[in-house]
Design a protein that fits this description.
Helix content: 25-40%
Strand content: 15-25%
Number of strands: 20
Strand order of the largest sheet: 3-4-6-5-7-8
Oligomer: single chain
Number of domains: 5
Number of helices: 10
Largest sheet: 6 strands, mixed
Structural class: alpha+beta
Distance between the termini: 87 Å
Radius of gyration: 38 Å
Bound molecules: zinc ion
Length: 450
């Protein structure tokens, strides 16, 4: 065996996705000289043995064929039914195998010419195929091929059009000896031939700028398709991450870094689920619009941070380490109690408070020692915790009712807002002004004891 021949066959074998495909390519490209019908069928039979032995399992999972009851009319597309693809043999089979891709092809041809199509041969069961001397392993026996005649259109024109829409298996028959029809099939590797002796052709003239209606290779992602998904990087991703952060999602410890990684992916899926979108982790137009809408809704709910104003009668809580206005320490039991605001804020920013709604004043303290009391919230105040002031580094930072993204968003802080954190839990900080909790990934600690 010549080395070049061996290498060529080897290349086909390693590139083929199925044994059947490899066999077809080898036969079409290298076995052309085997003109004698007996020789061809002997080779095909040998190939079938190997095919049956090794490839059936693979082929069964990759071949998208459907099975219909022979003689029964099942609609397959606008103009075709399963009946038209039935095997023409009698007493040979009871089922018709049809590849939906083949139906798609013939319907496309039907639509283009706007003329009726006769399928002169569709599915051929192995028994019938053998009876009529068809090649073993014929595409017709797998439901992948059809010989068609388009009313009032020459087989050549049909072949030309079939080529232009990307059909890879086309045989043109247009003489009295060969018959007048066009064979089309669903193979992935191009193979064009002419007549019963299957003379190889490179084109039927239909290769002019063909819209690839039936792409067989993975489409290349376009660069500016405005769809973002895992693995993407760049400015668009960074902007997306900023938006997700604004909405309270975690895009990773580095924050918006322009790298669509697993955290961003999880954040997108979380967002999609909460907004009844398909949770595919891909940011297309629907998700993008929903994110914009969510941000718009949220911005109408921005709160001013550390608004240290209380009205008389409001309930507050002292922050750990709070002192009376004269600097004396306030006992822990008072700090841990609910307290009631009993006076207007004075010029020195102090207010009087008591531990009961009415009755004697318990003390006077600076307003900065107070935080709003949230009913039902059981804050475990760590008296050893050193309060500190943070500056918000994200454009907008959500304030949530609890320490985590699973809690309701109750307000927002803006970039450069300053707030005092009075306790921490799982990298979340509780705001002294009592509005809630913020994620500490998006703040900068600026000083102690706010
Ligand atoms: Zn049959
Ligand atoms: Zn055919």
């Amino acid at each position: 065996m010549k080395t070049s021949y061996k290498n060529s066959v080897y290349n086909i074998l390693i590139n083929a996705t199925t044994v059947q495909q490899a066999s077809d390519v080898v036969l079409m490209n290298f076995e052309r000289s085997a003109n004698a019908a007996a020789q061809k069928s002997k080779r095909a039979a040998m190939g079938q043995v190997y095919y049956d032995k090794y490839a059936k399992g693979v082929e069964n999972t990759t071949m998208a064929t459907n099975t219909y009851k022979k003689g029964q009319k099942t609609k397959l597309s606008e103009n075709f039914s399963s009946l038209e693809f039935d095997c023409h043999g009698s007493g040979c089979c009871s089922e018709t195998i049809i590849n939906p891709k083949l139906v798609e092809y013939v319907q496309k041809i039907r639509d283009h010419f706007g003329k009726s199509i006769t399928i002169t041969s569709g599915y051929r069961c192995p028994v019938h195929n053998k009876r009529i001397g068809g090649a073993t392993g014929s595409r017709h026996s797998k439901g992948d091929a059809a010989d068609i005649v388009v009313s009032g259109v020459t087989p050549k024109e049909v072949a030309k059009y079939a080529e232009s829409i990307g059909i890879k298996g086309i045989g043109l028959y247009e003489t009295n000896a060969d018959g007048h029809f066009t064979h089309v099939d669903t193979r992935d590797v191009k193979s064009f031939w002419y007549g019963q002796n299957e003379a190889k052709r490179t084109t039927f003239g239909g290769s002019t700028p063909a819209p690839d209606l039936f792409p067989t290779s993975t489409p290349q992602p376009s660069i500016n398709n405005n769809v973002l998904s895992i693995g993407d990087t760049g400015e668009d991703v960074r902007k997306l991450q900023e938006q997700l952060v604004k909405l309270g999602y975690n895009v990773g410890s580095k924050g918006p870094d322009g790298d669509f990684g697993s955290k961003t992916y999880a954040a997108v899926i979380d967002f999609q689920r909460k907004h009844n979108l398909k949770d595919d982790g891909i940011v297309g137009p629907l998700t993008e619009n929903a994110i914009k809408e969510a941000i718009k809704n949220m911005e109408q709910n921005v709160v001013t941070p550390d608004v240290e104003t209380f009205k008389i009668g409001e309930i507050a809580q002292l922050i750990p380490g709070a002192t009376y206005i004269d600097g004396k320490s306030i006992p822990t039991w008072i700090i841990n109690s609910k307290i009631y605001i009993r006076s207007e804020m004075q010029e020195n920013n102090s207010v009087a408070f008591s531990i009961s709604k009415t009755g004697p004043i318990t003390g006077v303290t600076n307003i900065s020692n107070l935080m709003k009391y949230i009913p039902g919230e059981n804050i475990e105040i760590d008296s050893n915790f050193e309060n500190y002031v943070i500056k918000v580094t994200a454009d907008i930072l959500n304030i949530r009712a609890g320490a985590g993204t699973n809690f309701k968003v109750i307000g927002q802080l803006r970039k450069f807002d300053l707030c005092t954190i009075i306790t921490e839990k799982n990298n979340w900080g509780k705001l002294k002004n009592g509005t809630g909790w913020i994620c500490l990934d998006y703040v900068q600690k600026i000083k102690k004891n706010g």
